[in-house]
Queue: 2 jobs
Job 1
Amino acid sequence: MNDQSTNSNELPLTGGAFLRAAADGELSPAEQARLEAHLAANPADKARISFETGLRSCCCRVMSSAKCPDALRNRILDQITSTDTVSPPATRARSFWATHGTRRWLGAIAAAVVLFVGVAFVMNLTRYGANVPSQAQFAQVVSYVAKEHRECDINPDRVRKFTIASIEDAPGALASIVGSEPTVPNLEAAGMVFKGAGRCRVPDGGQSAHLRFEMPDPDGGPPQRLSLFIQQRTALTPDLDENVAYLLTDKDGVSYGSVVYAWRKGDVLYYLVAKKLSACNKFRDAVGIPKTVAAR
Amino acid sequence: MERPEFEQLALEHLDSVFRMALHLARNQTEAEDIVQEVFARAFRPTSIQGFQPGEDPPTAMRAWLFTITHNVFLTRLKQASRRATPVADFFDATDNQPPPDEPPPLYDGQTLDWEQVDSRIKTAIDDLKPEFREVLLMWAVEGLKYREIAAILDVPIGTIMSRLHRARKILTDHLLQDPQTADDLGLRRLGNPDPEHLTR
C-alpha cells in the first residue's frame, strides 16, 4: 500500500489520512494511481479532497496577511550593520618584532616591496594625471550607495522609489533629475535587464538617481544585481578625473562587502555597486567606462 | 557561504519568520522580540559557518530559520514559568501513531462560500494551541511537506499528520458548531464520515 517513493510518509495511509495526503500532494506515484482507482469507484470522495484543498487555501489567506513591520526590519538591518562593523576584541599579543627572530627581516623586505609597488602605482596614476580622492571624501558616498544597494535587495519598501520602469524613458527622466543628460546604458544585448530607476539622495552633491540592473552571474551563481547611481557634479562632490575609474575597496567596512566603482563623465558622477567584482567588470566592459583604475 | 550572501538570503525570509513568531506568540511585541533574537542567533559567526546551504540554499535557509524560531519560542515559554502553557505538548515527539482514519467531511462545494469562511476561520485559528498553529502555518502558508515540517520540529511525520488532522478538524468543527453559521456559509453536509470504504 505504501511503497516507498517520493512520498514522505513512512506510515501506512488508510481512510481519512489517505484522502488528506492526496489533498496535500503527499502521495507517491503508486498511491496516486491507487487514489485514481478509488475515486473512480467513489466519486463523492472528490468533494472531500476538494474541501481539504479549500480549507488549506483558506488557512493560507488568513495566516499569510501578517508582514514584518518596517520598524522591526530596520532594527534588524541596523543590528546587522553594527555586527558587520564591530571590530574583533583587542588582544594583547606579543610584538611581532620581539618574537620572530629571523622572520622579521623577511617581513621588512616584504614591506619594502609593497612600498615600492605602491609608489610606482601612484607615479603611474600621476602620469595619467589622476587625482586620487581621499578616503574622507568618499566614505560617506560609498557608505550610502552600498547600503542603498543592499537594502533594495532585502527591503521591498525601498524599491518603491523606482518610478521609472522603462529603459526608454530613463534618459529623459534622469536628465530632468541630474540636470545634464546622463549616459544610460541599454544592456539587454549583454544579458543585463533594467529593473527600474528613481530619484535618490547620494550625499555631498547635487541631485541624484539610482538605476538597478540584473544580470547572470559571470561565475555561474544566482543572478547578480547591480546599482548605478548618478549624481550631479557640484563643488562638494569628490574630485574625480574624467578618464579614470576609481575602485573603492572595503578598507574601512563602509561598503558592506560590495564592490564600488566611481567615475565621472562631464558634469555627472557615476557609482557602480555590486556584490562581485566579476559582475562589476562585466558591466564595465559592456558600458565602456574608463579602463584606467585607481584604487582608493 | 560569505556573510553578505548569507545575510541577503536570511533577510529574504524575514516576513515568514515574523509570521511564524506572530502565530506562535499571538502578541506583536513578543513576536518582534522573538524575530530579533532569531536573527541575532542566525548572524553569529559560528552560525554562519555552521549553516549548510545544500542544493537549495533558500529552502535550507527558511527551514533553518524556522527551527531557530521554534527553539527561541520554546526557550521563552520555558523561561516564562508563571505561565501554565503546556510545554510538554511541544515535546510530545513520541506519538508516532498512525494518522487518524476519520475521513474529511463531505460538503457540497457548490454552495460553500469560502470568502465567508475566511473571516470565520480566523478566530478558530487564533484559538488553536500554538503547536497546531505552527504546523498549520508551515503547511498552508509556506507549503512545506510533512517530512520538511517534521525535520524542522524534530518530531516524527506521524506527529505532523496527527497535528494537522486535529487542527483541521477543530477548524471545521468551529464552522459547524452553530447551525446558523453553517447555513450562512453554505456549508451543507452531503454525507457522514465513513472510513470503511477506504480501508484496505
Job 2
Amino acid sequence: MNKDMSIHTIHHPDMLFGQLVRSSIPKGNIASISLPKLSDDFIVITAQDIPGSNSIKVFDETIPLLSGDHIIYKDQPILAIFGPDRESVHQATLQVNINYTIDEEPVGAVQPPEHETSMSWGDCESFFENPMNTIEHTYMTGNTSSVPSSPLGAVAIFKDSAVEVWATTQWPFHVRKTVSEVCGITKRKVEVYQNPYDHSSGGLLLEPSVMAALSTIAAIKTGKPAKMTSMDPVFRPELIVTKKTAVDQDMVPIAEKIEFQIHLGVIPLFADEILAQVMEGVIPIYHLEACSIQARVLTSPTVPRNYFFGFGFSLGLFTSAAHASHIAQLSLMNPANWLMKTVRNSTKRPKHLVHPRPALIKELIERTVERSDFSRKYAVYEMQRRRNRSISTFTGYTRGVGLASGFGVNGFSNTYMNEHNYSVEVTLDVNDQVLIKSSILHSSTEEIWKTIIQNQLGINSEDIAICQGSTSEVLDSGPDILNRDLTVISLLIERCCESIKNQRFKEPLPIIVKRSLKRSKATNDEMKKSAFAYFTWGSLALEIEIDPVSLNPIPMGVWITVSCGHIYDQDRLKKKIQARVLKELQAVMGTETRSTYQPHIDVEFHKDEDAITADPLPNILGLLYAAYTSAITQALNEPFTSIPAGAQQVFEFIGGKK
Amino acid sequence: MKINCLLNNKQAFFNTYSDKPLSLLLTEEAAITSLQIGCGTGRCGNCILLIDDKPVLSCLIPAFSVAGKRILTFEGFTKTRFHSEIKRAYKKHQAYPCDQCYAAKTLIIHSIISDNMDPEPEDIIQALQVNTCNCLNYDELTQIVQTAAGFRRRKRRVRRS
C-alpha cells in the first residue's frame, strides 16, 4: 500500500467496514441493547468482546474504549458493527435500539481539583485598592467544532499472528500501544503505518486509536481486513478569560488580575500542558508592576476536546493581544504607538516567563504599520467610530483595522520532559548514501531536509532516502509529535550532519548519528509550569469591512511580520502561512466554503539568523484572532471579545446592543 | 442495482447499492486511487471528476445516476494530451497544488479551458471555488489557467495549420 493513500482509498476485496454506535445520553446506565438480525457476514463488538483492556491510556488519563454498562459522556462509543459493505453496516447501526436509565446528577461543567494553578508577581491587591481606572473584559473562544476535511480512520490486517494497522494518526506509537493493550497482543506484533491526515482539524489522537483497536479486533476475529472511518466533528477546548487591568492617568497598565478556565470535555487530557501554554499566552507583553493569574480546568460529560495546532497557546495569546488593543483604543492612542510605549524590559516578571524584547517588537510593529498603512487607516476608521453613528444593516461605512503583536512559544513545556522527544537518526552508509529516520509525515519538507544534507555533506539528492515505514522502522517522538513542529526536525538533521561531518573520513562507514530535542531541566515546580525552548516574535495587522447585507466581517487584507530564526525555504513558509491564515479566517468567520474574495495576505520575515528556528504559526494564529476582533471592535464601536466572529455573532451583537 | 457506464474510456459494469456515492463506488469497486475523498459531504471539493466532460463532486452523485454516462477520473485524464498543458502551466509559474487537491484542481482547470479558451478571471475564480483547498491563491490559479489556455490555443493553431 502506498503511504500517500488516503484512508478512504485503501481497499481489499473481502474487507469489512465498521461503524460505531454511540450513546445518546450524557450520563446513565445501559438497561438493554437490542440488535437487528444480522447475517454471518456481520460482526458486533461490545465491551465484552474486548480480549485485553477496555481502555485507552494517555499518560495518567484513562478513558474507556467502549462503555460497558455505564455511560460517562454523550456520544461515548457503545459498540461497533462490522459488515461486508458500508451501506448495510450503516443500516444495521440505525436499527440498534439501546435503552438507558438516566442519572439524575447534574451534567454541567465541574472542576477537578488537581488541575488548578496560579501565579503572581508584585502586590496586585494594593494597585486595585485605589485605582485610577480599571478596565475589565471577558474573552471567550466558543464551543467550536469542525468536521475534518479528510476522514479519520484505520485499517487493520491480521496475518501470521501479527497485525498491520494503517491509521490517520499523528502519533503512530500511541496507536500501537492501544492496539497492543486492547487486543492483548505484544507490541512487537503490531506494525502501525501513518496515512495522510489534515492536522489543522485536530482529532488525531484518541479517535484513530479507538478505530484502530476495534478494526484490529474485527480483523482477528474474522481473519479479514477491517476498516473504520469517521467524519464526526471534533471539538476545540473552550476558553474563558477575565482580565481586569488597573491603569494610571495616561492609560498605562500597572497591574492586572487574570482568571481563566478551560473546558476539556470528559477527561482533562494534557491538562497540565494546556494550562502551562494558555498561562504563557494570557500574560500580556506590556509592562506590569503586579499581576495575578488564577487558572483551572473544567470537565463535563461531553466528548473529549482535541488539541488544535498547539495546546491552547494561540487562544491565550488572542486574549492578551485583544485586551491590549482594547486598552489602546480607550487611551485614544494608535495601538501601534501604545504598544511601543508600554512594552519594556522589566525585572518584575518572573524569570521563567518569556521576557519581551522591546527593540524587536518595535521593529516588527514599524514594519507592519508601514506596509499596511495602518496609521492612516486607523485614524480614518477611528474618526468614523467616534461619530457614534447608529449601526444599520444597510447603511454606514463599517470598517475597522486591528493590530496585534506578541511572541509565540513552540513545542511542549517541561510537562512531559521525561517522555520521548523529537528524534532524528541520520545514517551515512558505505555507498555514501544517506537515510533519514524520524517519525512524522514529512512529504512537504522532504526537499528542505535533502537540501540541508546536500549542503552539509555534499551528497546528491537522489542518494538521500527518507524512511517512511512503520513503527518498527521509524523513531518514537513521543507526545512531541502532537505539536507537529517540523522546524525542529530540520534543526536536528542539521545537528546530525554536523556530527557526521566531524566523524567522516576518520571513522569507518556506516556512521549513524541520532539527535533528540533536549529541553532545559526545570529546577522547581513553578518552572515546570512554563519554560519553553523556542520562541517566535510577530506583529500582524488586519483590515475588515462588515458586509452591509450579510453582516459578515470580510477581511480586506492581512499584513504579517514575523521573526522565527533561520528560514530554510522562505517561499514555502510564506505559502504555508498564507494558506493557514486563509483557512483560519474561514473558521473564525464560520464560513466553510471558499469565498470569491480572498484578502491580500502579505508576509515579511524579519532576519534574525542567530535565533533558533521555530514555527511561527502558533504566534500568527493568536495575533490573527486578536487583530480580527480588534478590527470588528473598531467597526462596531463596542468591544467585541469572542471568537468565532461571523455574520451570526455580529447580528446577535448588534441586536443585543440595540 | 446493475450499472453500466464508460469509465476512463473503457466499459465498466457495477452491481451495487443504487444510492452509493460515486466516489465510494469508484474507490472500492473500480480501484480508482486518484480520488481524494475528503469530507464526503461536498464541502472540500477534492473528489472532483468529469461526467460527460462536466466537473462534478463525486461524493454527492449517487451511483444510479451515472448509468450510461461517460466518467473521466484523473487517472484517465493523465492519459490524454490535455494533461501536459496544465502540467506545463504549473511548472511555468512554479506553483503546484498540494497532494490532496492536485487531481481536483487539474480537472477543474481542464474543464474551464475546454469550455472557454480565453477565460476571464471571474469565471476562473467561480469555477475553482468548488475546491476549498487554499494551497494556491486566486492570483496564482488565474495565471495558471490563463497560461494553460494559452498553451491549448497555440496547440490548436498548430494542428489547424
